[in-house]
Amino acid sequence: MIGSIGQAILRILLASLGVVTVVFVALRIAGDPVTIALPPGTPLDVREIYRKAWGLDGTLVEQYGHFLARLGQGDLGRSLAFDRPATTVISEYLGTTLQLVLGAVVIAVAYAYLNALFFWISAEKQRYARLAGALGSLNAVVFSLSDFVLAIVSLLLFGLLLGVSFSPDTGRWNFLIGSFCVGLPFAAYFALISRRLAEDHLKDPRIRFLTDATSTTVSNFHFLLLPVLLKRCWSLLLLRFVWLAAGTFVVESVLGIRGMGYLTIRSVAQRDLNVTQGVVLLIAIMSVVANVVADTIDRGAGGQGRA
Amino acid sequence: MTDAAVIRRRTIWLDSRWIVTAIALTLIALAVAMALADNRMNLSARQLPPLTGSYILGSDQIGRSLLRQVCRASLITVVLGGSASLVSVCVGFLLGLGSLSRHRLARGLLTVVIDLKSGLPTFFVALLLGAIFGQTPLFLFAVLCFVGIEFSARATKDNAAEFVGGPMYRALVAEGVPRLRRATQIILFLSPILVPLWALVFLEAILVESGLSFVGLGLRPELASLGVLIREYYRIVLQDGWPMILATTTLGAFCIGLFHIARRRLG
Asked: Above 0.90 for ipTM, yes or no?
């Protein structure tokens, strides 16, 4: 146990260091950050002042050392566009994205739960077979469409047909509709898994014995399938939470939500190196941690692990 | 049902399948011809409704045929997404096979590579590569190649591990079959998952390309893919919603089609 935890921590540290290095090198290969960030025609002495202030005056190895040292203290430097610490700027926008994703996860779990319950009951009762088939197909369609297409369809449906405003300043439905767009593909995926689990579970002779004796009821679902479903899906939930947080760019752009995706696109456009770097690092390290933790728990539960 | 009826039914089904294939191929050929045809702007034919003269699906805000625009954008999206996903699946497949290696160092290295990949979600890879290459088709191709590597590697590894742990492979080892022949057997065992894997990665690539182009990190308007087209029509959606509905429906149809291929093959 201690060995596997130690191995997981080592993997997190190695992968995080790898990600930090990749991000550092990639953003430097793009060109001199000072030249990119400052307007053309900025005098040389002014550039040098900025170069020193941003810690870009040494060799690449020295810069990397400074960068790691500052990162260790949680300092990402100052945002060039906002003229405030990059960590403060990111934390302001992070809240909106986390709320959006949390809403999406709640929607996904509720939808998947109802789906699993329905599939559990329909597996026994033939009269619901067609409805279950139609629901399965609907889930497949929603899953394949992704949040991007769903956001545009929502925009067309609510914006054009119902006249709902999606303005970032005055729109009131952006957030709720955004949560649905981000959450529904995941919910559909979750529902597809739960359906497969319900079918497999019912084929188990031990379960068949129990269900034959008592029939497939809601209380049976909670007793027999829900623990299995939760055990199988929690690591998926953990991984998806981070992936959803990383993938809200498009939904935020389409529906005018000012979250981290909006901030990233803006910081790329304005060449705000420190904020771009900070957002990439935050999501990357969150992903690495979620991936390794989920993998370690899966291995502990007797699975093969994902990596 | 009698045997004769079953055979007759099967024959009709086979015939109808050929007819459907022929129709589909003809439609694809027509769509490619449409995509390659000249489609200049014509300011006197702006925002025409569908079925107006030669504008079967109407025209956009600068008088271009919407049908030709959508066909051209689809062609660009399919070529870019299809080729990148092919590269991605091949690399992922090799990585997945490599992760079965007996060498601990090779296995450890692959784990680190997969951890790194999982730590860099696609949009962030796009940001990084965009910073290096700029917004060129090469940049987008590199991003899309990155999309399905991890997924393909994991799917390959899981399926190959199932085969290697099974009785057939153990029998091959017991018989002293050379390593190369055993590797060929693993590849043959894995071949049925390649098409659905490619379909899923292709689907993901199309969505990533469209999303990136939509937020302005993908292709430029000169090389209008479906994402660029949606971005362009998004700006005029309040004046004219039809072009955006058309472009979004096309993208949705591709997604559903590819997912259907993967789902049917995987069961």
From this structure: no
